[in-house]
Amino acid sequence: MAAHNSKPTATDLIATPLTLPCGLTLPNRLVKCPMQETLAEAPLFDPPIDKFENLYTQWANANYGLIITGQVQVDIRFLSIQGDVVCHDRALDEPHFSKWKRWAEISQGAGTPCIVQLAHPGRMSPAGAGNRPRDMTPLCPSSVPVKLGDGWLNKVALDRLLGTPREMTLDDIDAVVADWVHGARVAKEAGFAGCQLHGAHGFLLSQFLSPYTNRRTDDYGGSCEKRLALLKRLVREIRDICPSPYCLSVKLNSADYMAVGGLSQDEGLEQVRWLVECGMVDFVEISGGNAENSTSKLHNSFGTRSIDKAPQMSESTRIREAYFTEFAERVQGLNSKVPIQLSGGFRSRTGMADALDSGVCALIGLGRAAVLQPDLPKSILLNPSIPDEAALAQSHIVKGQWFANLIPIKVVGSGLAIQFFYHNMRRLGNGLKSDPDVSIPFIVFNGVLETLRSGLLQTLERVFQSVRSQTNAEKED
Question: Closest by alpha carbon to 118, among 93, 87, 140, 83?
Fold first, then answer.
C-alpha cells in the first residue's frame, strides 16, 4: 500500500505548536501583538482590572499561541500616552501587586501564555503624560529633539509638547536599567510567562540603537557595538534574575526609515544577530519605523483599505503579505534557531501560512486585527469550517483621515489615526464591541465632550467637597 504524504494545509501550519528556547511551548503560531490599551488611571496607573476583565478575557479565549500585553512603562514620570500601565516602585506592594496577579490570571485563564511588554518612551514622552513637573524634560541618549513638519507652528507645538530632551547621564542609564529589571521581576512574581523589551518605534531603547538619536561618545554610543550596550546590559541583567523557563523577548526595528542618519537595515541585522546568538533571548519580534519617518509601510498603512480577498498559496510565488518581509528574509540568512516573529500587515490565513512555510518567520504578530476582531484566531484563522479563500481579517480603513489632514500641526494630525484603535480598545474594555466604522472626527469630538464632562464633574465634586467641609465646620462650631 502506498504511503500517504499530504502537504500540510494553511490551517495546519498556523496551528503547529512551537517550543521556545526557554522551554515554553506555544500552542500555535499566532501572537497577539502589544497595543497600548490607554485604560489605566492616575495617579499610579496600576493595571485597570475592571477594564482588563472585559478586554483580556476576550483575547485569552481567542486561541492565540501567545499574548503580549500593551506597553507597560517602567518609569512613572515618563509615559508615552495618558493611560499607559506603569510598573512603579510600589508594584510589588499591596494593594498594587494583587492587580498584577489578577491581570496575569485573566490573560492566561484559558491556557495561552502571556508576557508583559516593558517600555520607556524616552524623548517621546509628552508633557502631561506621567507624574513629573511640567518643567522636567524627557530623556534621550543625546539631546536630539523630535522633528515633525516645517514652519513655526509645528516648532512651537513640538516645543510645548515634547521640548528638547535632556541627554542621559550614566546615573540616568543605571536608573533606567534598574527600572526595567524591576519590571521583569514584577512580571515574573505576578505569574506572567515572561517579558518583552520594546526596542522599536522610536522609544528609548531604539533611541539608543539608532545613530540618529544616539550621538554619544562614551561606552553607550559612537559605534554599532556601543549602541548595543544598553540592550546587552538589559538582556544579561534580566536573565540573571529571571532564568528559564521565563520567556525573554526583544522587539526591534528593521530600520527606522529616517531620511538621513537613521538606523540602516545593515546595522539592524547586526543587532538581531547578537540577540539570536547570545543564548539568552527566546524570540525576536521584527517591526520598523518611528513617529518621525515618512516611508515605513506600517506607519503609512492607515489610509489604505486592508485586503478583502485572500491570496492563494503557490509553490512558485511567495505571498509576502507582511510589511517587513524583506528584512525578515535577510534575518533568515543568519540560520538561527531562535524564532522570529514578523508583525505588521498580516490579514489572511494563506498569507500567514505562506510566511511560516517559507521559513521567513516562526511566529505571526496580529495587532490592529486583534482589536477589531478579538476572537480572530478562534472564529476564523484556526476554524476548519472556514475555507482558505474566506479566512482573513475584516477589511477596513480608518475613516475621516481628511480631518487629520486639515490640522496644521503635524504632531497632532499625524497621531489621530492610531486613536481609532485606542478608541476601540476602550470600547472593548467597557464591555462593548469594536466599531470598525467610527471616524476620526467622531473620536476627536467625543474626546472633547468627555474632557468637558469630566471637567464639569470635577468642578461639581470640588463644590460639593467645599460645601461639605463648610457644613462640618459649622457643626463643630
Answer: 87
The sign of the torsion formed by the CA atoms of 154, 302, 304, 364 equals positive
Q: Give pairs for 400-409: CB < 8 Å, separation 24+.
A: 400/439, 400/440, 400/441, 400/442, 401/302, 401/303, 401/440, 403/439, 403/440, 403/441, 403/444, 404/440, 408/151, 408/153, 408/154, 409/149, 409/153, 409/154, 409/157
φ, ψ dihedrals at 358, nearest 5°: -75, -20
In the structure grid, which three cell numbers stand for residue 68, read together? Answer: 503580549
Among left, alpha and beta (phi > 0; psi -120 to 50; other), residue 431 is left
Asked if residue 114 lies in contact with residue 105, where contact means CB atoms within 8 angstroms, the answer is: no
CA 56 to CA 48: how far, in whole Å?
A: 11
Q: What is the pTM of this model?
A: 0.91
- CA distance readout (Å), 86 to 76, 364, 385: 6, 27, 41
- Report H helices in 137-287: 152-161, 170-190, 204-209, 224-227, 229-241, 265-277
Q: Which of 203, 202, 196 is nearest to 180 (CA)?
A: 196
Q: How far apart are CA 34 and CA 341, in angstroms?
A: 13
CA distance 176 to 170: 10
What is the DSSP-derived secondary structure letter of residue 29?
S
- The model's pLDDT over 314-366, given as tens digits with 9 standing for 90+, comes to 665 678 888 899 999 999 999 999 999 999 889 999 999 999 999 999 999 99
Q: Read off the pLDDT of residues 236-293 as tens digits, 9 standing for 90 and up.
A: 999 999 999 999 999 998 877 665 778 888 999 999 999 999 999 999 999 877 767 6
